[in-house]
Amino acid sequence: MNAVLKDTVHTTAPLAVRGLAHCYEGSSVLxxxxxxxxxxxxxxxxxxNGAGKSTLIRAMLGLLEPLAGEAFVFGEPALxxxxxxxxxxxxxxQQPEAxxxxxxxxxxxxVGRFYxxxxxxxxxxxxxxxxxxxxxxxxKLSPGERQRVDLIRALASxxxxxxxxxxxxxxxxxxxxxxxxxVALRAGESGTTVLFSTHIVSDLERVASEIAFLHxxxxxxxxxxxxxxxxxxxxxxxxxxxxxxxxxxxxxxxxEDGSLSLVVERDAYGQWPExxxxxxxxxxxxxxxxxxxxxxx
Length: 297
Ligand SMILES: Nc1ncnc2c1ncn2[C@@H]1O[C@H](COP(=O)(O)OP(=O)(O)OP(=O)(O)O)[C@@H](O)[C@H]1O
Prior knowledge:
Layout: H1 3-11, E1 15-24, E2 27-37, E3 42-46, H2 53-60, E4 68-73, E5 76-77, H3 83-87, E6 89-92, H4 104-112, H5 120-129, H6 143-156, E7 161-165, H7 173-190, E8 193-198, H8 201-207, E9 210-215, E10 218-224, H9 228-231, E11 232-237, E12 251-254, E13 260-265, E14 282-285, H10 288-296
Parallel strand pairs: 3-8, 3-9, 6-7, 7-8
Antiparallel strand pairs: 1-2, 1-4, 4-5, 9-10, 11-13, 11-14, 12-13
Helix pairs in contact: 4-6, 5-6
Bound molecules: adenosine-5'-triphosphate (ATP).
GO molecular function: ATP binding; ATP hydrolysis activity
Organism: Rhodanobacter glycinis
InterPro entries: AAA+_ATPase, ABC_transporter-like_ATP-bd, ABC_transporter-like_CS, ABC_Transporter_VariousFunc, P-loop_NTPase
């Protein structure tokens, strides 16, 4: 393990993985993922359906043993996490299923016993505010309500590390806004570190400080949300100049007329690739959504 990463993972990083690889039934899903979350950061993990986001999250938290690589939570091996560390983290899976035979209130009361910083008042008030009947069985709640209860469970434990796998998947737009506001508040006021996966680019823009883009088992791009527009752009080259296209573009699309469009990145000196200076070449700014669509297609 490289020395810098080793230092970080064993001391400060709430979450760190190195070289994570996994496959299902012979098909590779993760192909050597390295990722370190700094304390207090809000990282949005984005990628297409089936890109491996849930698998990565589960492996990061030690809920799945990867074929290769290492995962650390608060510096401890994720597969052997102590009860102390477990109490400092909260994870909301994409489809919460646990304890479905309890009512929402019973589940929260039960789970609360395991968390030293459990905020029962927050749990009660948020159930009320989010209009969830406390005495209804979890099994009888709609998927969106169920997801909300699980989010309340996660937030009421006042975690240092909050991991949300597509938290907005079953939420209506109002609930989504409320959740994002709550997440931003926790990150801003309590310094909670947050990792959340999503398909919704506007959610990333609203709350994430950084984004990581998972594509074909690798993290293709990792940078500050505000930085992306500055750092990446679409380079368009007419057909007669396509031979000048840089080799290291993030994506490359050839159009019917032979012209090329590529997603390119500024170099260490802030310069676009040389080809951008050719007469007839054009650099277009890319919004986050366009950037993802260009790369993921
Ligand atoms: N237990 C499993 N057995 C076999 N294949 C699996 C299993 N879990 C996931 N997969 C496959 O691995 C790939 C990645 O799945 P994963 O759920 O990690 O993706 P994702 O990025 O979270 O997708 P989505 O955005 O649709 O939720 C998919 O092709 C999926 O079908």
